[in-house]
Specification:
Chain B: It comes from Rhodanobacter hydrolyticus. The complex is a heterodimer. By secondary structure, chain A is an alpha+beta fold. Chain A has 2 domains: 4-46 and 286-414, no CATH class; 65-266, no CATH class. Chain A is 49% helix and 18% strand. In chain A, strands 3-4-10-7-9-8 form a 6-stranded mixed barrel. In chain A, strands 1, 2, 11, 12 and 13 form a 5-stranded antiparallel β-sheet that branches. In chain A, β8 (192-195) and β9 (202-208) form a beta hairpin. The longest helix of chain A has 38 residues, at 336-373. The mean pLDDT of chain A is 89. Chain B is α+β, with helices and mostly antiparallel strands. Chain B folds into 2 domains: 2-47 and 309-440, no CATH class; 63-260, no CATH class. Chain B has 18 helices and 12 strands. The chains are: A alpha+beta, B alpha+beta. Chains A and B meet through α2, β12, α8 and α10 of A and α2, β4, α10 and α13 of B.
């Protein structure tokens, strides 16, 4: 089939061609970027935290009238209260294990710092940024972490200290990501490190495969897998406990928790959010991401629908307009399939022009978003898939009008317009 | 004549119902998507105190030096205050009104022993905070500067907490037990929950979903009783001493600061003051880098703190893109529709209708499509705003609402946009040569 007659025919509909091509270009640009955003968010939401999330929940509570001082006596009193809570929770029939903790992945409350290979380094000169988790000898198995080297904490490792006390522990467990950053040879276990510019050495005794930091914000993205676990019960006027329920007993355990803690000590604050399953923590943390993905999805669907409908509308009009010419071609010997192919080719040509402009627009839009809204660079693959998609969309939309055109009988040529 | 054009438009639209429906759907969806995202954007980008925002300022002091930006990954000088500098600025008192403030989350013990204690949110502030942010009082007022100095145990309650503790009565003079200590109520704030919470963006991130703040306490009193801060604490080195006292002696930043300056002269002299203050600190040997400070008015401050989430802006941008595609689509369809009636236009023109009449006729038709699309858009915007609640974070979704201005805007945008999209097709229609049309028929 020759392109020349097609192009000269299109010249007579310049405005229509330009409008369809423009629409396809804009659609391509927006859909590529929207799908990229969706892909990015879905990937973010599906990251594994390193925890076994099923049957896990978090209890956060605050004591009223607890000692507020940072002196040794107050600290020991608060620690006694915390141990009382832990013992009560562990004695629950539906509970498998419990650990005190300052935070959990996705909770967006974190204590972050830097780990250094040298003593008394300035905080900013640390060798690796890390987040800190504080728990006892039950931390690793309560959260369901995989210990891949060294040993777990034992009861003898665990100490307690005031919430704002800056002394550092003798032993720590680190994630593989952090261990590999500090000791690229993979021999971190047994090595000495210094936390937060301290002069006190801490020994790495174990390595866990994976544990995400609490913060999901972009600022923490550079150290999302660098976590350090300290065998320390933190004492303050509030405390949190991560609880693993026995398999399938999550709801029962959660329901029994609040009355139990009030029974242990009524002078405390527990509200609706105090007992929260990890599934809820996860859905709260990623709500904005899921929402954004859903919104982009809806916009893509509307966009593709409108564009497809636009092509159908305009092509139908053209078919109607060229009714007689089609009849003439048929009378001169063109087969049905020739007419069908003609309209399909014509659409391919227009969509192709649109796609070329669209690729440029898509990349431009991505650059704009990168510049102003901290977006990542879009891989070329998205654009290529987008091009194929709009070409297919065009072919799909044009098929019906084109088939109607091919059904125009040759006899039309003999009638007046 | 307009009625005649309406009639013509209606006839023409009826003649090709498929095409008409297509245009109306496109406009409806395009406008609804834009208006829904706009309602969210409008909610989060509004000025929380429009009559005064240009007179409220947030200072920033570079107490961490260039290293924090080179190695620490900070992009700007620290956006909060350490205790020492916040108190020094309060002491010097160079603005008209000013307050250092920090976020607290103490528990309140109800007088009724059978009730469990409740956790409340609030801020420790200075007395000038209330006139500065113009908090509306239902009962009583804020405390006095004297109370600040005397470290009095007084507090201001929210309307909601007042209801909860005392019922709907004037509780001024009554006492409230916070963390085991009694505080005297001096005022009750009447429903006041500015969004974003502009006076402390650093700790709230701007938008707070769970209602207004419950309590305000004097800053010095809260420090005295050791009420810890509940917001962010950022340190570039580890405090040398332990505890809340250690935090107060450290260079960690955790305090928000705001000052009211009423004229350009005041702003200049305040800048001079900050400059002098930093120079003096440098000369005293506290740091060795060039003194640096910043003073931003509220709108600039909200902007630099990225209070409007990027997601909201991107959504609006993408939705506007969708609207443009819908308009291009409508322009194409209108063009097809109008040119198909070249014969009719030719007859009208030959019978003496001026070009202006052709314009009027076809723009009326475009406007009619726009109005129908707008009505559909209204319904879909309603659905959209209702759905925002389960796709967006609660704190932001709660702010997006449907009101008369949004509805009116939906209609106006739909009609104006469609008429704009109809301009080119109409222009083409008005160019139709009557003689040529008549002959070819």
């Amino acid at each position: 089939m020759k392109l020349h007659p097609m192009i000269s025919a299109l010249r007579r509909h310049k405005a229509g061609v330009v409008l369809i091509a423009l629409q396809i270009a804009l659609t391509l640009a927006i859909v590529c970027n929207a799908v990229f955003i969706i892909g990015h968010r879905v990937e973010r939401v599906n990251r594994a935290t390193g925890l076994q999330e099923q049957d896990l929940y978090l209890v956060s509570q605050q004591w009223v009238g607890a000692p507020t001082g940072d002196d040794a006596d107050s600290i020991q009193k608060m620690d006694a209260m915390q141990r009382e809570d832990l013992a009560a929770l562990r004695a629950m029939p539906d509970v498998a294990s419990v650990t005190p903790t300052n935070s959990l992945p996705l909770l967006n409350q974190s204590w972050n710092g830097a780990m250094s290979l040298n003593a008394d380094a300035k905080l900013l000169d640390g060798n690796a940024r890390t987040t800190y988790y504080f728990g006892d000898e039950n931390f690793v198995h309560t959260l369901g972490l995989h210990l891949i080297a060294g040993r777990d904490f034992n009861a003898g490792d665990v100490t307690n200290k005031g919430f704002r006390n800056t002394s550092e522990p003798a032993v720590v467990i680190v994630t593989k990501a952090l261990a590999d950053k500090l000791f690229p040879k993979g021999d971190a276990v047994g090595k000495i490190v210094y936390l937060d510019g301290s002069g006190t050495p801490s020994t790495i005794i174990g390595e866990v495969e994976r544990l995400q930091v609490p913060s999901t914000g972009s600022w923490a993205g550079s150290f999302a897998w660098n976590a350090t676990i300290e065998p320390v019960r933190l004492n303050g006027n509030s405390s949190s406990y991560a609880v693993r329920a026995k398999p399938g007993r999550l709801l029962a355990a959660m329901k029994a928790t609040t009355p139990l803690l009030y029974k242990v000590n009524p002078l405390r604050v527990l509200d609706d959010d105090s007992v929260k399953s990890f599934a809820d923590i996860r859905s709260d943390a990623y709500r904005a991401d899921v929402g954004m993905a859903a919104l982009m999805g809806v916009i893509c669907v509307i966009l593709l629908g409108v564009t497809a409908a636009g092509i159908v509308g305009l092509t139908s009009f053209w078919v109607g307009q060229r009714h007689r010419q089609i009849g003439v071609r048929r009378a001169l010997g063109a087969r049905k399939v020739d007419i069908l192919r003609y309209f399909q080719m014509e659409n391919l040509l227009i969509a192709g022009i649109g796609a070329v402009i669209g690729v440029a627009l898509a990349i431009g839009l991505n650059l704009l978003l990168m510049q102003h809204y901290a977006m990542d660079r879009m891989p070329v693959l998205y654009v290529l898939v987008g091009v194929v998609l709009v070409l297919l969309l065009g072919q799909g939309a044009v098929f019906n009008p084109a088939r109607r055109a091919s059904n125009v009988p040759p006899v039309v040529a003999t009638r007046a317009a | 004549m307009f009625a005649y054009y309406l009639d013509l438009a209606l006839r023409s639209l009826k003649r090709s119902p498929g095409l008409t429906l297509l245009m109306v759907l496109a406009i409806g969806f395009g406008v609804a998507a834009s208006m829904t995202t706009w309602s969210v954007f409008r909610a989060v980008s509004g000025d929380p105190i429009p009559w005064k925002s240009s007179r409220l300022f947030v200072p920033q002091l570079d107490i961490w030096g260039p290293d924090s930006r080179k190695k620490g990954g900070y992009t700007d000088i620290s956006d909060a205050f350490d205790y020492t500098d916040a108190l020094a600025l309060m002491r010097d008192h160079r603005g008209k009104l000013q307050s250092a403030m920090y976020q607290v989350s103490p528990s309140v013990v109800p007088a009724d022993a059978a009730k469990h204690p409740i956790n409340v949110s609030g801020h420790a502030v200075f007395s000038e905070f209330f006139p500065m942010v113009e908090a509306p009082f239902k009962y009583g007022s804020g405390w006095s500067a004297q109370d600040d100095q005397n470290r009095s145990h007084v507090l201001v309650l929210s309307d909601k907490l007042n209801q909860k503790l005392f019922g709907d009565v004037n509780s001024v003079g009554k006492s409230v037990n916070i963390e085991g200590k009694d505080y005297r109520v001096v005022g009750v704030v009447d429903r006041w929950n500015p969004q974003p919470r502009y006076y402390d963006v650093v700790n709230t991130g701007g938008f707070v979903g769970d209602g207004a703040e419950d309590v305000f306490l004097p800053f010095n009193t809260a420090i005295d009783v050791g009420m810890p801060n509940n917001g962010n604490t950022n340190c570039n080195e580890i405090p040398k001493e332990a505890g809340f006292i250690g935090l107060q002696h450290s260079s960690c930043v955790w305090i928000a600061y705001m000052v009211e300056l009423d004229s350009a002269t005041d702003v200049d002299s305040y800048k001079n003051y900050l400059d002098g203050y930093m120079r003096q600190q440098q000369q005293a040997g506290r740091f060795n880098w060039a003194p640096k400070y910043k003073l931003s008015d509220l709108p600039a401050w909200l902007d630099s703190e990225h209070v409007v989430p990027d997601d909201t802006k991107v959504s609006l941008l993408v939705a506007l893109g969708l609207l443009i595609v819908c308009l291009v689509n409508t322009a194409g369809l209108l063009l097809a529709k109008f040119l198909r009636r070249s014969g009719e236009i030719g007859v009208r023109r030959a019978l003496g209708a001026p070009r202006a009449a052709v314009y009027a006729q076809f723009l009326t038709e475009a406007g009619m499509v726009g109005a129908a699309g707008g009505v559909l858009g209204l319904l879909l915007t309603g659905v959209g705003v209702a759905c925002v609640g389960w796709v967006l974070p609660k704190d932001i979704a709660a702010l997006a609402r449907l009101d008369v201005s949004l509805l009116a805007m939906t209609l106006v945008v739909a009609v104006i946009a469609t008429v704009l999209a109809g301009l080119y097709p109409t222009w083409r229609a008005s160019r139709v040569q009557p003689a040529w049309q008549l002959k070819s028929n």
